[in-house]
Design a protein that fits this description.
The complex is a heterodimer. The longest helix of chain A has about 30 residues. Chain A is elongated and about 110 Å long. Helices cover about 45% and strands about 10% of the residues of chain A. Chain A contains 4 helices and 5 strands. Chain B contains 4 helices and 4 strands; from the N terminus they run αβββααβα. In chain B, α1 runs antiparallel to α2 and α1 runs antiparallel to α4. In chain B, a hairpin with a 5-residue loop joins β1 and β2. The mean pLDDT of chain B is about 80. By secondary structure, chain B is an alpha+beta fold. The chains are: A alpha+beta, B alpha+beta. The interface between A and B is large, with 58 and 51 residues.
């Protein structure tokens, strides 16, 4: 398969995974405040909202959350714009190649910072007897980062390698007094060793 | 200064600014006491400190500085790569684009988290809690703007370099008088039988 098409497929997969990852659960913290061992308090973060399900509450409550959906969406939009540009004129293709690299950077930066926040700020150290789980959304975002990075690499126009010579390489040294590497030419034709004096070309 | 020189300087400034910003306060939560004294917590990209010192803080500090510093290092690397000869300078441009994207994503996420943290859970006029954004947040945003500018300056206007396909053959000297690379064929006589063997 054409490398550029393979890269475009990887970019598309990465964009879809990033959207799915931002909708799924990024991080879940479970802890127990109440003495009742069956009651578990749960706090779940997605990229768009954080949901609380505490033991004393009638139903889970959602707040607007940390708002990481916005940078993830921006990265996905960049990937899609870059994908569209890749299959246009050579100039737009050059722009698209740069755009997908920028999109990969934004997605990786967002996922990384999101992980830093969730792991350190809302990790198990916050409350005693707590458990933390990295959710499917965060894993999906990590895979999306990989897919976009690989895709952005594949769609680039890598500079061509210098062609490998088929035969022996001859290096000429500029020295007038020296014998040339393959000797001095003697004006003669190739001589057939079986029939001396006759040249094979001349029959 | 040339376009490239401006880009290199801007990228370097952006990297240095981003690293400095991680040590500046991102935000402050607390109350003002009489005079200049304050009671509360200041968060940087690496740690949370309290005023007065020694107050207990639940939870660890988010290490927002890690991706920011790595992006800053990549920005400086991109600035250094810009001094390569032109055919290899494309590496500098792509490094700059990727590093700027990384910085933008990391800073944007950090800003969103800090803003969410600063949104008061209970908006009651009777509480005297203060939620202040710190200088670090704005300096981080400024570093992203400078990085974007520097990357734009480093990019080249679309001249498409046409690379010839296949091996390139160059004739160095006059082909009429010169020995061809593999020489001219010389007659080889049949080997004579060695004397003394029978």
């Amino acid at each position: 398969m054409n490398l550029r098409v393979a890269g475009a497929v990887a970019l598309g997969v990465g964009a879809v995974l990033a959207v799915c990852g931002s909708l799924l659960e990024l991080y879940r913290v479970e802890f127990r405040f109440s003495p009742d061992p069956d009651r578990v308090d749960v706090q779940v973060f997605t990229a768009w909202q954080s949901k609380f399900d505490f033991a004393g509450m009638d139903k889970p409550e959602s707040t607007s959350g940390l708002g990481w959906g916005l940078p993830i969406t921006a990265a996905v939009v960049l990937v899609v714009v870059g994908l569209v540009l890749l299959f246009r004129s050579p100039l737009l293709n050059a722009v698209g190649r740069v755009v997908v690299v920028a999109a990969g950077g934004v997605l990786i930066g967002t996922t990384w910072s999101a992980y830093e926040t969730l792991d350190r700020l809302f990790g198990a150290q916050v409350v005693p007897d707590g458990k933390e789980f990295v959710g499917a959304g965060l894993w999906m975002l990590v895979v999306a980062c990989l897919a976009v990075a690989v895709g952005a690499g594949l769609v680039q126009e890598w500079p061509p390698r210098a062609p490998k010579p088929d035969g022996p390489s001859v290096y000429r040294v500029d020295d007038e007094d020296d014998t040339p590497p393959f000797g001095i030419p003697i004006p003669t034709d190739e001589i057939d060793v079986d029939r001396p004096g006759e040249s094979p070309e001349r029959g | 200064m040339s376009r490239r020189g401006t880009g290199v300087v801007l990228l370097f400034v952006a990297g240095a600014t981003a690293v400095v910003a991680t040590f500046l306060p991102l935000c402050f939560i607390g109350t003002s006491l009489t005079g200049d004294a304050r009671f509360g917590f200041t968060m940087t990209s690496w740690a949370t400190t309290s005023e007065p010192a020694g107050l207990a803080w639940l939870g660890a500090s988010a290490q927002y500085g890690v991706p920011v510093v790595i992006a800053a290092v990549l920005l400086v690397v991109a600035a250094a790569l810009a001094f390569l000869p032109e055919p290899q300078r494309q590496a500098s441009r792509y490094t700059a684009v990727a590093a700027t994207g990384l910085l933008a994503g990391a800073v944007w996420t950090t800003v969103m988290a800090v803003v969410a943290w600063l949104t008061p859970p209970v908006s009651d006029v009777r509480t005297s809690m203060e939620y202040e954004t710190g200088a670090g947040l704005w300096v981080l945003v400024a570093s992203v703007v400078v990085a974007v500018l520097g990357t734009v300056f480093l990019l080249r206007r679309g001249e498409v370099v046409v690379v010839e396909e296949g091996p390139v053959v160059r004739v160095l000297v006059d082909p009429d008088t010169d020995t061809p690379p593999l020489g001219i064929q010389v007659a080889v006589l049949p080997e004579l039988p060695e004397k003394g063997t029978s």
